[in-house]
Amino acid sequence: MKPEAVLQRLKSISRDSGFNITQTITARDYDEVVAENRQVSDLLPGARSITLIGFGGNAFWNTFSNYLKSNPDFKERDENLIDNYSLMIFEELSGVLNENGVMHRAVFPFGEDGTLMDFVKLGERSGAGVRSLLGILLHPEHGPWISLRGALLTDLELSRYDSPLEGFAPCPSCHKPCISACPASTISEKGWDWESCMAFRLAEDTCSSSCASRRACPYGKDRQYSEEQMAYHHRFVLKSVKKYFEVKTP
């Protein structure tokens, strides 16, 4: 298949799997805005493009839930369900690239790959969103309700690529209900105080299953995660945060 046809096949599989965000940029565009230790040229020499894959809004949870119902054994094998589901879908995508002789490497924002790439800058550079006060990307349609699941580095050379969003910078002019909604005052005009937020979540049960600031954001209100999905993400993140603080504080 031609490069554009390969990309369309990747997008089709991703979309059918619940991943409705796919953005592709040149490897050079990404390398220009990240630190040297996170550049694609080190991860896959000869890479020409990067395809970022994720999901936005609440539709993913329905697709994912239906998959779990049809495959009960998948849920029994491991509790890191969305990460493992992402790995499985990326294996399918990798199969398409192998079939077409495309050199590639998959990189994820979780697990052992967690620090290899700057996914926030990748998301900004590819037009998946803009950085928000909440510390996450803000999408024009989905607001803060997006999750970046991984990136495919390839030697595909395409005729067109995605680019950063233009004319979308909502936080500066917003009345910022996210700041007043935070019970721990971890969000300010300067942004999100990650460590203070996580320390509060470990000490208090207030934010154990949801985020008042994220829900207060006026963008993507109709795309908000369900309570069930939000609770899943919070349990998973809190588990990782506990490990972080255990290592930091002997």
Topology overview:
Layout lengths: L2 H14 L4 E6 H5 L8 H4 L5 E8 L2 H12 L1 H6 L3 H19 L4 E4 L11 H8 L3 E2 L5 E2 L7 E9 L15 H4 L3 H5 L5 E2 L2 E2 L1 H10 L8 H5 L10 H22 L2
Helix pairs in contact: 1-6, 10-12
Features:
250 residues, two-stranded antiparallel ribbon, four-stranded antiparallel β-sheet, NADH Oxidase, globular, alpha+beta, single chain
Largest sheet: 4 strands, antiparallel
SS summary, helix count: 12
What topology, given as strand order, has the largest sheet? 1-2-6-3
* Total beta strand runs: 8
Order of helices and strands: HEHHEHHHEHEEEHHEEHHH
Give the structural class: alpha+beta
User: What is the CATH topology assignment of the largest domain?
Assistant: NADH Oxidase
> What share of the residues does DSSP label as strand, in percent?
5-15%
**CATH first level of the largest domain: which class?**
Alpha Beta
Radius of gyration computed on alpha carbons: 18 Å
The helix content is 40-55%
Can I get a quick summary?
This protein is an alpha+beta fold and 250 residues long. It has 12 helices and 8 strands. The radius of gyration is 18 Å and the shape is globular.
Report on this model:
With 250 residues, the chain is an alpha+beta fold. The chain has two domains: 3-154, 3-Layer(aba) Sandwich (NADH Oxidase), CATH 3.40.109; 170-248, no CATH class. It contains twelve helices and eight strands. The protein has helices at residues 3-16, 27-31, 40-43, 59-70, 72-77, 81-99, 119-126, 170-173, 177-181, 194-203, 212-216, 227-248; strands at residues 21-26, 49-56, 104-107, 130-131, 137-138, 146-154, 187-188, 191-192. Strands 1-2-6-3 form a four-stranded antiparallel β-sheet, with helices on both faces. Strands 4-5 form a two-stranded antiparallel ribbon. The model has no long low-confidence stretch (mean pLDDT 92).
